[in-house]
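Course exercise 7: structure representation. Students receive a sequence record and must write out the corresponding structure in token form. The form below is the worked example handed out in class, using SPFH domain-containing protein (213 residues). Read each field label carefully; the graders check that inputs and outputs are placed in the correct fields and that the protein name is recorded exactly as given.

STUDENT ID: A-19
EXERCISE PROTEIN: SPFH domain-containing protein
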Amino acid sequence: MKHTLYPWERAVQFDRGVLVGEVEPGQHKFPRHVVLHRVDLRPRTMTPAAQDVPTSDGVLVRVTVVVRWAVSSATTFVVASARPEDELYTAVQLALRSAVVTRAHSAVDPEREAVAAEVLATVAARAAELGVTVAEVAVRDVVMPGELRRAALAELVAAAEGRAALERARGETAALRSLLNAARLAEEHPALLELRALQTASTVVVDRPSRRS
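STUDENT ANSWER:
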């Protein structure tokens, strides 16, 4: 039988159930009793389902990661496990749980990069056993419980209101300071009051009565 393997593929060859080795890309012809297991070596992405992880202070935080991986050994990938992708999925979930459970809930989001690095380091050994190399782990989402999100929003609103009140107080203080300075000038220079009175009188406009047709 003829088999064609593309550049991104390898095949693991078995002859009557005995492992023979890997077959490189190209066109090959084998007897019927030879079985080939094709393996795609191209990088791929895994996004495990979000899981609720308890933090060190007892808060359930929902975290999602994205994992970029590829098969590094076609033979190991075929032989080591019946479902290697499922094994990698489980390893990532367990590593993520271990990285989050040691942190307080307030530290999980700010330390996304550190959490991702810990997951990558933890899962690397298991991935190698499966014939896989994990190139990158990134924390995509960190979702706090609804109560904490509402509390954080209330805190932001309170901070904004506090800043607005402070600005109003500063404005009132500046106005009072201006009035105080004016009073001191009037006390020290009484002539200023007379000038002010004359200025006010000169701006008064007397409306003329309108003519009736």
